Amino acid sequence: MNLSKHLSFFDPLTMLKGNIHIIGCGAIGSTVAEMLTRMGIVELHLWDFDIVSAHNLANQSFRHKDIGTSKVDALTDICQDINPDLKIIKHPKGYTDEPLSGYVFLCVDNIDLRREICKAQQYNPHVQAIFDFRMRLTDAQHYAADWSDKKQIENLLKTMAFTHEEAKEATPVNACGTTLNIIPTVRVIVSYGLANFINFVKTGEIKTMILVDAFHYMLDAFPLKD
């Protein structure tokens, strides 16, 4: 894959220090996978048990021909169409309790599962960093932790001190109860999350919290408080 557009700024072949796991291949996860592929990542682990539905096309990276296909299979096809040399390890049953390593992107839409994953990996020395994404309609949040920093891990877990049901109550829905979500918000928060990832890989520095509102043009980034 020709990476001349950014190779002098970010060279994944020489800078990365581990695997990349994308847990959840929906709006956030499929966009993360597509953008990492274009950045020249040579191997991805994709975790998701779901299949592509018609309503997914509005805010995810899938195509009409992917409807009815498992998300990991469809996303593998999309990413390898961009870079045929990309190696993808598929986990079509989703995440259960497997040990992870390298860089972990939490893109599931369930805070209970995100908290479970972080707690399961809390003392795992093979994880470099975890990048977490949360989104409503126009606003979104990105949290991250250098996994060698105990305080950052603890602070990330503190941001998960609520239940999935409580999160659902705060999520905008339409009159039919469908969760509202729009693609500009997805692209904005993923872009900042991947910029955070690149900066961490290059310099070891990480932003532990980034808040955005795509339609009110708001951006803030600052450390998580103890």
SSE order and pairing:
Elements: H1 12-15, E1 20-23, H2 27-38, E2 43-47, H3 71-82, E3 87-91, E4 102-106, H4 111-120, E5 127-135, E6 139-146, H5 150-158, H6 164-169, H7 183-203, E7 209-213, E8 218-221
Parallel strand pairs: 1-2, 1-4, 2-3, 4-5
Antiparallel strand pairs: 5-6, 6-7, 7-8
Helix pairs in contact: 2-3, 2-7
Please tell me about this protein's structure:
The protein has 226 residues and is an alpha/beta fold. It has one domain: Rossmann fold (3-Layer(aba) Sandwich). Helix content is 33%, strand content 20%. It is built from 7 helices and 8 strands. An 8-stranded mixed β-sheet has the order 3-2-1-4-5-6-7-8, sandwiched between helices. Helix 2 (27-38) links the parallel strand 1 and strand 2 (43-47). Helix 2 runs parallel beside helix 3 (71-82). The chain is globular, with a radius of gyration of 17 Å. The model has no long low-confidence stretch (mean pLDDT 94).
